[in-house]
Q: What sequence folds into this?
């Protein structure tokens, strides 16, 4: 079983991030860490691979950043491919998917796992774009994955419960956050991760044209960025005997009843 | 309750400016600062997520003795301990041969710092285990090391140190627990031990008690003490925990703090004698104890830092959120966060600067212990060992006293709410209060410093230490500006310390009681000046980082500010202690015991 996990390395959410007013994108020249939402996919992959299979990582990040990859390697993944190239600056979601798909294709995996969405960009489209580009079936919102021969049996989170879905391998599954308990890297895992191979490749190495990625290849434009509106004061309901009715009316108005 | 934040930048700064980890790391497979921090970041993430949230329940529920003689640790402790063992954080400073991480002890100290800040009660189980590991590493037979160390270093088995008895506390030589040799070469131990930290609990598969006892023909006093391994479960032929040994907890103490840590009264040999195995030779137990004492005392000194850090984080948060009163110049009718009031500032900065000083002292001490083991040549190793010997009572004594001061200040910042238990800030004060008492009271630390450490090598060790301080003074003064002002304050404090040291040398030689009378104020003075000195070095390193174009100038400017505050507010305290150091014996003994009460 050869599993590839797509992992994103993002600025630490604990430190307030900053947007570059010129490019209107998140500043990524700080130290990057493993996106927490990807730690669930890494954990699922490690559980599925067990002792027999292999788990490898694919990531796209600026400045040859490997901080987040090392965390996932310390958790137990065996190797990683990092796509890092100045030409990728300004890439939109579809370009990112093209680049990741090219990197994933190199290892012909049985299963590709991705998070539902990243914790910095939140486009939530890249996994399905990768699947389409690689002509793989894709299952979204997985809360549980089981492998049975050449089939992936996936419990797919829905609003009311879950769907049981079966899908032939190879396929791509995007997993929701919080569905497994990601392991903490052990001291020995951290030390071992230092020696694990991280192959850094460029756009050209992947056979892609530099003109088709980055700002040049982006099919979208960020027109403007605004600060989030300040939170407004809430409505205070003084109880004059009818508070319950007014609360019900309020909730009704929000269509939550 | 404020969540604990691992102070990784502060740790990085001391590893760089005080420890010189890149240099020390050459003896540890080329370990460098970035690699060290990569490891500590993951350790910190684990500790912050898994251990720190248990601190409160550790205090409110505590460990409980059950009717069947078992002890249940607070909810979540056993699970967190299991995860701690699986992650392997307890053994990183121990040899690879037994499954350890082969890192410098200083890396172990950094993990220990975060663990102790997260929950001091929790941290005591691994801490006592470390002490037992040290003892076995240095003095256990090869067979004993093979049998016990791997499981103890992993943490699957924990360890305890059994010294104190009802009539043998600071005077260990008075202990009465008996050890009688059996026909098979093992010993039968009988006696009662008190204050045994984690003497019984539900977190580890076995507990390896190290017990001090006397053989029947042993000479009196400390020269007749032997040390024994007494496992809770005697190992079977395969080395696994087997038959229950005759070593049981009788009761656990109701204490001011560290409620999570079961402090046990242990009864050995109530039935037919607990089976014990001699470590090394008979009557050498006290000597063996001394080899692990530097590490154990450093670890307790570290507790002063750790609890202070946790209390500071909480008090800082409160001071930024609590709105009360109007500062001078603020708009009429408005209110300010209390952090804007000058005296709250003073309190917070006092805490901040003392924490920085404690961290520098603890890590400097730890690095000296490391270099005493791995230095390039015998002379370097001996110099480092001497430095560690000198620093041990300073680390233990000063940091634990300051720990009480800082945690008390945290309560003061909270005002009335700090005195109310539900804010959780009082817990730090209660937890911190044990540290000046155990592992050699601070009174004993002061005596150790004045009577044993100052005379080392005919005064050459303290002489070299004072000379090192003078070098930093010079460097600060030639750096100019704010650093020069720190240097001037330090120069004056070093002069005071030198005068006090000389007085103790001259008068203590003729009459030891003269020196003993001034030992505690001298220890305090030594702690303050050592703290100011190392913060001076920290400030020089911070300035160098700023000059080199660091991407985090605000952090380094804060380190200079912390050192400047220490130099302005705390270093001058040294001068005020000089009179007490040199007051001599007469003022203490002028009143007889009856007059003291009247």
A:
């Amino acid at each position: 079983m050869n599993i590839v996990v797509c992992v994103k390395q993002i600025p630490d959410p604990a430190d307030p991030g900053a947007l570059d007013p010129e490019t209107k994108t998140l500043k990524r020249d700080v130290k990057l860490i493993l996106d927490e939402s990807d730690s669930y996919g890494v954990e699922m992959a490690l559980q599925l691979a067990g002792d027999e299979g292999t788990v490898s990582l694919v990531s796209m990040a600026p400045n040859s950043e490997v901080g987040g990859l090392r965390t996932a390697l310390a958790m137990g993944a065996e190797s990683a491919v990092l796509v890092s190239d100045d030409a990728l600056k300004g890439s939109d979601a579809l370009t990112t998917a093209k680049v990741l798909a090219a990197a994933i294709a190199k290892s012909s995996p049985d299963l590709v796992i991705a998070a539902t969405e990243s914790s910095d960009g939140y486009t939530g489209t890249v996994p399905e774009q990768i699947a389409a580009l690689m002509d793989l079936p894709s299952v979204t919102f997985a809360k549980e994955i089981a492998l049975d021969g050449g089939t992936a049996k996936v419990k797919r989170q829905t609003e009311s419960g879950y769907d049981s879905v079966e899908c032939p391998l190879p396929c791509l599954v995007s997993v929701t956050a919080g569905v497994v308990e990601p392991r903490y890297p052990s001291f020995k895992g951290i030390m071992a991760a230092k020696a694990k191979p991280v192959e850094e490749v460029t756009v050209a190495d992947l056979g892609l044209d530099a003109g088709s990625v980055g700002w040049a290849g982006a099919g979208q434009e960020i027109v403007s960025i605004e600060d989030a509106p300040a939170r407004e004061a809430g409505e205070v309901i003084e109880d004059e005997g009818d508070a319950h009715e007014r609360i019900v009316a309020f909730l009704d108005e929000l269509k939550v009843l | 309750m404020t969540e604990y934040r691992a102070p990784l930048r502060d740790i990085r700064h001391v590893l760089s400016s005080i420890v010189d980890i890149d240099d020390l790391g050459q003896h540890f497979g080329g370990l460098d600062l970035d690699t060290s921090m990569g490891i500590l970041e993951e350790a910190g993430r684990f500790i912050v997520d898994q251990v720190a949230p248990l601190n409160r329940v550790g205090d409110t529920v505590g460990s409980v003795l059950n009717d069947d003689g078992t002890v249940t640790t607070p909810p979540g402790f056993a699970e967190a301990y299991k995860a701690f063992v699986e992650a392997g954080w307890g053994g990183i400073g121990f040899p690879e041969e037994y499954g350890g991480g082969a890192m410098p002890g200083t890396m172990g100290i950094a993990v220990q710092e975060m663990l102790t800040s997260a929950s001091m009660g929790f941290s005591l189980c691994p801490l006592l285990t470390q002490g037992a590991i040290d003892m076995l590493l240095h003095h256990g037979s090869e067979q004993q090391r093979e049998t016990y160390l791997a499981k103890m270093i992993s943490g699957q088995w924990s360890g305890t140190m059994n010294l104190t008895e009802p009539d043998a506390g600071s005077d260990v030589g008075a202990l009465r627990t008996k050890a009688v040799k059996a026909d098979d070469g093992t010993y039968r131990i009988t006696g009662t031990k008190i204050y045994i930290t984690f003497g019984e609990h539900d977190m580890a598969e076995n507990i390896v008690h190290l017990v001090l006892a006397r053989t029947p023909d042993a000479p009196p006093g400390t020269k007749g003490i032997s040390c024994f391994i007494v496992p809770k479960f005697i190992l079977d032929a395969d080395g696994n925990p087997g038959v229950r040994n005759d070593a049981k907890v009788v009761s656990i103490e109701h204490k001011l703090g560290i409620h999570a840590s079961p402090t046990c009264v242990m009864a050995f040999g109530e039935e037919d004698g607990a089976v014990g195995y001699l470590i090394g030779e008979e009557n050498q137990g006290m000597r063996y104890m001394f080899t692990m004492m530097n590490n154990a005392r450093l670890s307790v000194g570290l507790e002063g830092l750790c609890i202070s850090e946790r209390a500071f984080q909480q008090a800082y948060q409160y001071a930024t959120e609590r709105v009360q009163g109007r500062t001078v110049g603020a708009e009429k009718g408005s209110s300010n966060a209390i952090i804007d009031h000058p005296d709250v500032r003073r309190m917070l900065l006092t805490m901040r600067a003392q924490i920085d000083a404690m961290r520098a002292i603890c890590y400097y001490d730890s690095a000296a212990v490391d270099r005493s083991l791995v230095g390039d040549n015998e002379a370097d190793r001996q110099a480092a060992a001497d430095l560690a010997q000198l620093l041990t009572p300073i680390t233990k004594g000063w940091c634990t006293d300051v720990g009480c001061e800082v945690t008390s200040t945290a309560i003061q910042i909270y005002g009335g709410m700090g005195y109310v238990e539900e804010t959780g800030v009082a817990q730090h004060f209660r937890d911190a209060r044990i540290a000046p008492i155990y592992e050699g009271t601070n009174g004993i630390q002061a005596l150790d410093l004045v009577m044993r450490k100052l005379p080392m090598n005919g005064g050459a060790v303290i002489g070299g230490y004072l000379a090192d301080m003078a070098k930093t003074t010079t460097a600060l003064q030639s750096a100019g500006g704010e650093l020069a002002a720190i240097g001037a304050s330090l120069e004056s404090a070093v002069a005071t310390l030198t005068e006090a040291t000389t007085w103790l040398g001259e008068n203590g030689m003729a009459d030891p009681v003269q020196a003993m009378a001034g030992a505690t104020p001298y220890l305090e003075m030594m702690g303050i000046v050592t703290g100011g000195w190392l913060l001076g070095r920290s400030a020089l390193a911070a300035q160098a980082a700023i000059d080199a174009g660091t991407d985090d100038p605000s952090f380094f400017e804060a380190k200079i500010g912390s050192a400047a505050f220490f130099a302005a507010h705390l270093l001058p305290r040294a001068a005020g202690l000089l009179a007490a150091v040199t007051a001599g014996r007469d003022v203490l003994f002028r009143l007889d015991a009856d007059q003291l009460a009247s």
